[in-house]
Amino acid sequence: IDQKRKADCGASEREERASNMVQSINIKALTTLASVVRRPYLAAPHLFVPTVSDVNYPALRDHCGIKAVIFDKDNTLTAPYENSLHKRATFGLQSALDTFGIANVAIVSNSAGTDDDPGFVDGKEIEEALGISVIKHSEKKPGGLDETMRHFPNVDDPSQLCMVGDRLLTDIVFGNLHGMLTVHTLPLCSGKENKNDNKVAKVVRTVENTIMYADWWGGRKIRSYTLDHKVWKGEYECPLVLAATDEKDPLLGDLGKKD
Prior knowledge:
This protein is α/β, with parallel strands linked by helices and 259 residues long. The chain has helices at 2-22, 27-38, 57-63, 90-100, 121-130, 145-151, 168-177, 199-213, 217-224; strands at 47-49, 68-71, 105-107, 133-134, 161-165, 181-185. A 6-stranded parallel sheet has the order 1-6-5-2-3-4, sandwiched between helices.
């Protein structure tokens, strides 16, 4: 009974922290929005994949000049506000670790490791659960470059970083603003599995993906202006997407559909 009470208390504490964390406003994203409206290609990723497990990490290292990989957490590596690695992300995270080493793989989250995570409580839990560092940063993505660069002493230039995440206006804009190679993923979870997701984030993500990927002239125009990366010359010359698995890959138009 005592063990059950402890487990229930632990789950309640995590839910309470998650509730508090999702209420915080991302000031940096709001102030950057004007720049994105003027230059919408800042939100266009270099690469789109269904999950982090569909990326060729050795090719990133060997042909793209990438020295370290940064992952978003919620709906990229884990279910929202959960600290266990999602089964669909297991292969991808392990491949990144095998390729770059544990010192060169980290999480930059807009919840854990920020001022919304007092005492770095959530950050420590995630580090223990996933086995990789959570970078502390006071300014949410698309801010946080200084702390990120300090975390990787072997990285001389942001173009040597690869940013992987499911949000265009935070993860991808963060990477593109600083010349990183950017990889956009679908959210890992849907339906009941996505019950803890930030409701505002779900709505904004749907709008982001609809504008960027739906079959309309505006989305095609934005993607045609995707920023060049310093080293990578494109998927045609240097493929970074692994061969399709048994899962059906989504069509671009499907990204605008709600969870």
